[in-house]
Protein backbone atom coordinates (compact mmCIF):
# COMPACT_ATOMS: atom_id res chain seq x y z
CA UNK A 1 0.00 0.00 0.00
CA UNK A 2 1.49 3.35 -1.07
CA UNK A 3 1.97 6.39 1.07
CA UNK A 4 -0.47 9.24 0.62
CA UNK A 5 1.07 12.44 -0.64
CA UNK A 6 0.83 15.50 1.61
CA UNK A 7 -0.90 18.66 0.45
CA UNK A 8 2.49 20.36 0.38
CA UNK A 9 3.96 17.68 -1.90
CA UNK A 10 0.92 17.96 -4.15
CA UNK A 11 1.33 21.73 -4.31
CA UNK A 12 4.99 21.29 -5.24
CA UNK A 13 3.98 18.99 -8.09
CA UNK A 14 1.43 21.56 -9.27
CA UNK A 15 4.25 24.11 -9.39
CA UNK A 16 6.26 21.85 -11.69
CA UNK A 17 3.22 21.44 -13.93
CA UNK A 18 2.55 25.20 -13.97
CA UNK A 19 -0.97 24.71 -12.58
CA UNK A 20 -1.68 28.05 -10.91
CA UNK A 21 -5.32 27.23 -10.15
CA UNK A 22 -4.26 23.94 -8.57
CA UNK A 23 -1.70 25.77 -6.44
CA UNK A 24 -4.29 28.30 -5.28
CA UNK A 25 -6.80 25.55 -4.50
CA UNK A 26 -4.32 23.51 -2.45
CA UNK A 27 -3.11 26.62 -0.62
CA UNK A 28 -6.71 27.56 0.25
CA UNK A 29 -7.08 24.03 1.67
CA UNK A 30 -4.15 24.65 3.98
CA UNK A 31 -1.14 23.49 1.97
CA UNK A 32 2.01 25.29 3.04
CA UNK A 33 4.36 26.99 0.62
CA UNK A 34 7.68 26.10 2.24
CA UNK A 35 7.88 22.32 1.75
CA UNK A 36 11.26 21.25 0.37
CA UNK A 37 12.15 18.40 -1.90
CA UNK A 38 15.14 16.08 -1.38
CA UNK A 39 17.42 18.66 -2.97
CA UNK A 40 16.23 21.44 -0.65
CA UNK A 41 14.15 23.29 -3.24
CA UNK A 42 11.00 25.06 -2.10
CA UNK A 43 8.15 25.53 -4.58
CA UNK A 44 9.36 29.09 -5.17
CA UNK A 45 12.90 28.00 -5.95
CA UNK A 46 11.59 25.31 -8.31
CA UNK A 47 9.43 27.85 -10.12
CA UNK A 48 12.23 30.38 -10.42
CA UNK A 49 14.58 27.84 -11.95
CA UNK A 50 12.35 27.51 -15.03
CA UNK A 51 11.65 30.68 -17.03
CA UNK A 52 8.33 29.27 -18.25
CA UNK A 53 7.15 29.21 -14.62
CA UNK A 54 7.59 32.94 -13.92
CA UNK A 55 3.83 33.36 -13.48
CA UNK A 56 3.86 30.49 -10.99
CA UNK A 57 6.66 32.21 -9.05
CA UNK A 58 4.65 35.42 -9.03
CA UNK A 59 1.60 33.56 -7.73
CA UNK A 60 3.62 31.89 -4.97
CA UNK A 61 4.97 35.27 -3.87
CA UNK A 62 1.47 36.75 -3.90
CA UNK A 63 0.27 33.83 -1.76
CA UNK A 64 3.01 34.57 0.76
CA UNK A 65 5.90 32.26 -0.12
CA UNK A 66 8.96 33.23 1.88
CA UNK A 67 11.33 34.97 -0.51
CA UNK A 68 13.98 35.00 2.22
CA UNK A 69 13.81 31.26 2.85
CA UNK A 70 17.03 29.47 3.61
CA UNK A 71 17.56 26.36 1.56
CA UNK A 72 20.18 23.71 2.17
CA UNK A 73 22.39 22.24 -0.50
CA UNK A 74 23.23 23.71 -3.86
CA UNK A 75 20.17 26.00 -3.76
CA UNK A 76 21.21 27.66 -0.51
CA UNK A 77 20.54 31.36 -0.51
CA UNK A 78 19.06 31.34 -3.99
CA UNK A 79 15.65 32.68 -2.90
CA UNK A 80 17.12 35.99 -1.72
CA UNK A 81 18.72 36.46 -5.13
CA UNK A 82 15.48 35.46 -6.82
CA UNK A 83 13.61 38.04 -4.76
CA UNK A 84 15.69 40.72 -6.45
CA UNK A 85 15.15 39.21 -9.89
CA UNK A 86 11.40 38.96 -9.35
CA UNK A 87 11.00 42.42 -7.83
CA UNK A 88 9.57 43.61 -11.12
CA UNK A 89 6.38 41.62 -10.46
UniProtKB/TrEMBL annotation:
<protein>
    <recommendedName>
        <fullName>Ankyrin repeat domain-containing protein</fullName>
    </recommendedName>
</protein>
<dbReference type="InterPro" id="IPR036770">
    <property type="entry name" value="Ankyrin_rpt-contain_sf"/>
</dbReference>
<dbReference type="Pfam" id="PF12796">
    <property type="entry name" value="Ank_2"/>
</dbReference>
<keyword id="KW-0040">ANK repeat</keyword>
<dbReference type="InterPro" id="IPR002110">
    <property type="entry name" value="Ankyrin_rpt"/>
</dbReference>
<feature type="repeat" description="ANK">
    <location>
        <begin position="39"/>
        <end position="72"/>
    </location>
</feature>
Amino acid sequence: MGLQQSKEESLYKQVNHGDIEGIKALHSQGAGLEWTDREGKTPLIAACMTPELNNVAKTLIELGANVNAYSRGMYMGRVTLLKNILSGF
